[in-house]
Amino acid sequence: MSAFPETPYGPTDRVELDTVPLAVIRHDGLTIADLRDVFDRGYSAIGAAFASGALTPAGPAIAAYYGNPMEIFSLELGFPVAEAPAEPITTADGLVITASALPAGPATATTALGSYEGLGAAWMGLVERTLAAGLTPRGISIEVYVSDPGTAPESLRTDLLLPLA
Question: What strand order describes the sheet that includes 61-66?
Fold first, then answer.
């Protein structure tokens, strides 16, 4: 199953993720307080790479969190692309875009509708339901920003993917 379905996920859908090539900017040693700046700079830099023709988008923006986002974690911020960059791309403001991939394998998923402020509660619910089902998360949390950035907050759709061990 693709990580980018046309219709929203249910409360806790079981899915099989396909490997998807990504172009990302990786950040290590982040905390939640760092996210606003990281997101703004990162998506702008990748957008410029799209505008220059260096990359071709193949899906909505994603953020992949490695580790516990409530502590210190790593983040890959980017987009699915037609072809991952063969070599790192250094952006005008010094960020580096590299190849990565959406991890393949089993996952649980849900869709959060509305403002990004509701993502914390949506994640808590997905993790609780996943654990209650006796499943073990792999330590990666993925947000897929299905809606365009200019969408009214109450109409936003964000798919949450929790790869399993």
Answer: 13-17, 105-113, 157-163, 140-145, 61-66, 73-80, 20-30, 96-102, 89-90
φ and ψ at residue 32, rounded to 5 degrees: -50, -35
The model's pLDDT over 109-150, given as tens digits with 9 standing for 90+, comes to: 999 999 999 999 999 999 999 999 999 999 999 999 999 878
| pTM of the entire predicted model | 0.93
CATH 3.40.50.300 fits 20-102, yes or no: no
Cα dihedral 5/160/131/138 (nearest 10): 90
H or E element at residue 161? strand 157-163
Residue 43 identity (one-letter amino acid): Y
Neighbours of 26 (CB within 10 A): 17
CATH superfamily, domain 1-19+104-165, is Regulatory factor, effector binding domain (3.20.80.10)
